[in-house]
Amino acid sequence: MKNNNTQSSGLIIHIATPFILAAICMGIIMIALIKPSDKLQRYKGLVFMDELRLDPENINSGLIIKDNKIETDDKDYTSDKGTVIRPVYAEHYADLYCDSFETTVPVYWGSDIELFEIGACQSSGSSVFGEAGNSVVSAHVNTYFAELDKLDTGDKITVKTNYGRFVYTVRETISFKDTDKRYVIPTEDTRLTLYTCSKDIFGASDQRIGVICDLTESKYYVTEEVR
Question: What is the second-level CATH architecture of the domain 56-226?
Fold first, then answer.
């Protein structure tokens, strides 16, 4: 009787073992598939971590790039004081001009891989042009900031928005490691900080180059209602 029971138990184990192993393998595969997805979601959350990234009605619909036509003609009615218009995330809200740059540089509010492909990006933790503080703008060294290393002390940079025009003068050139945050944090003085990666023929560099500029002229556009 014991032999029969032993044989039955052995047969059951023999039959069940492949199913148990298959279940374990499936579990491992599912975990392997879920883990990268979790990491991707966390990375996506970090990339888009910005309270201004989307219009309220478009939450969870993805990155929305808002392209604006920036008025390039100087207005007849301007004032030394005025009101800024705060942009939403991924909005093209300014154009940057400089004699050293071959092209006009569009400036987008916020930092994102897609935005870096079409212009310069301004940190949404920095000050909007026309506000007191540090306005921090960066771009790829092989595209929009390819000539940034040509800037020198005393050079003029003009930023145009649909609410005003601002002229900055280069105070100093800077070079720093990508882990050094002293140039990109908020400041009490009003300045413009431009930076990009240092050119490196061997690939990506952890060295950054840039300029710090003082605001030397502000002209806010005056609307017809307040003339």
Answer: Beta Barrel (2.40)
